[in-house]
Structure formats: structure tokens, C-alpha cells
Amino acid sequence: MPLPTLRRVLTAASAALGTLALGLGTAPAQAATPLDYAALGDSYSAASGVLPVDLTSPLCLRSTANYPHVIADRTGARLTDVTCGAAQTKHFTESQYPGVAPQADAVNADTDLVTLTIGGNDNGTFINAVTACGTAGILSGGQGSPCKDKYGTSFDDQIDASTYPALKAALGAVRAKAPHAKVAVLGYPWITPAKADPSCFVKLPLAAGDVPYLHSLQAHLNAVVRRAAEETGAVYVDFAETSAGHDACRPAGTRWIEPLLFGRSVVPVHPNALGERRMAEHTLSVLGLG
Q1: Strand ranges for the chain from DSSP E
Q2: Contact yes or no for 157/86 (Cβ under 8 A)
């Protein structure tokens, strides 16, 4: 190779190596700032009964496998989890237990994302309805609709008169403290099937006519949760479709909710680990984060 040509080749090679070295030595672009994420809500948010237990707040029966932790793991968000079993809407602005701060204290002007499930404990809606209807179902041998006959619209009336305004006030308090956050309010996955399943009576001892009664009650509660969410600028995450076929009557591995009897959780009629994962995944999809 002629000497001038060799020099040109060597010069070009040297320039290329210099560029490569410069590229390797340059710091990578700064990673995106993780979401500042606050999780609020009741036992459906806390995953009460699901292992492992979060020992930082034992009174709250909170699990580190709850849907907020799944969401945080999938997104890399910085999670502040104040979910607490048995929480009512009032516990957003007042302490639930000594030493447990109001849940809304976990959000501020820098919060990017808030998730929550709340409302089912107001007026004791879930516990009172399931207990009353389960007792009536056992006494009736699963026949008729003794719970509906006795209680009629009383549970629904309490939801409209008390739960709805309390929900709206609680969500308003969150919005006031975190005006720029995306707030996602999750509905409750189905506890019962839409129609009675005789094979389920041993696990969920409801009279045949009370199965659709409880299903309708839950639909009403979710509709009120949706209404309060939409009226306060929050996103409602609807599980009416995605949780169908995963109620407490289904076999283990399919059900998202554990049954009242002979389930696999110390806290019956609550989501299991599978349910919490599916709640997280659907929420991520609705929010466009996963």
C-alpha cells in the first residue's frame, strides 16, 4: 500500500477508535424518575390474609403481596403503602388505630399516583350482609331468599344515604392534597356468582334466592364507587367483566376471592394472592402502565 494511502487509513481508524472511546466513556442518559406512588384503602387493598404479612403495621393486616406492591414492582414506583384492613372512608382523614396516621397523610403535592379500594366497610355493608345472609342461608337449608325477605333494600338504602357522600368526601380530601396525581379507584371483584350454584353452598352458605340478592348489592356498591370517583376526577377501575368467573364459588387456582368456609385464607371473603395480582394487572392496563 502506498505510504500516503496507509496514512489516510491509519488516520481514519484512529478517529473511529477515538469516537468509540468517547461513546464508551459518556455517562448513560439519566433514568426516568420513578413514580411517587401512595396506596390507600381497606382490606381488599391491603390483601388481609395473604402472606407474607407486612410487619411494619401489624394492626392493619397488610400483605407485601397486595396489589399495590405488585404495581410498584412492575413499574419501579416508590411506594408508600398505608392500606389497612377494616378501613372506612373516614380513616382517610382520621386515625384508624393509635399510632396509625390518617391515610390521606400519605399523599402530597408531589404524589404522582394514588390507588385505593374503599367503601365496603362503611355501614358494615360487606360484613353485615355476608354474615346475615350466610346465617339465614344455613337456617333455611339453602332454600328461598330469607335474607332478601328480611332486609329488603336496607343495605342499598344505607349505601345511597351514607356511603356515597362519605366516598365523595374522602376522594375529595385525597384530590385536595394531591392535585396533580392520577387517582385510580378500584371496584370490588365479584364475591358471588350472578346465579345460585348448588355445589357452592358448602363454601358460601347462601340461600338460592340470596345469591343474586348479594350480587346485586355488590353491583350497587360498585356503581356508587364509580360515581364518586368520576365526580372527583378519579379513574374508576371496573372489575365487573374481568372478575366474572373468578368468584368465591370457583375452585382454588381460578377464584380470586376466598369463600366463607373451607377456603385457604384466615380472612375469608377476601382476595387471595391470585386475585391481588389480577387486580394489579387490570389496574396497570387501565392506567396504561403495563
Answers
A1: 36-39, 78-81, 113-116, 182-186, 235-237
A2: no
Rg for the chain, CA atoms, rounded: 25
Nearest-angstrom CA–CA distance, 48 and 126: 15
Instruction: Give pLDDT, residue 31.
Output: 53
Amino acid 260: pLDDT: 95
Q: Which of 43, 63, 140, 265 is catalytic?
A: 43
C-alpha torsion angle, residues 246, 249, 255, 259 (rounded to 10): 130
282 belongs to the catalytic site: no
Which residue, 79, 167, 92, is CA-closest to 123?
167
CA 31 to chain centre: 28
Given 91, 215, 246, 270, the catalytic residue: 270
Q: What is the pLDDT of residues 135-189, one digit of tens each?
A: 999 999 999 999 999 999 999 999 999 999 999 999 999 999 999 999 999 999 9
Percent of the residues in the chain that have a pLDDT greater than 70, as a whole number: 89
3-class secondary structure, 283:
helix
SS (H, E, C) 134-171: HHHHHHCCCCCCHHHHHHCCHHHHHHHHHHHHHHHHHH
All cell numbers assigned to 97: 388505630
Pull the grid cell for residue 275.
Answer: 386475585
Residue type, 163: T
Is 162 designated active site? no
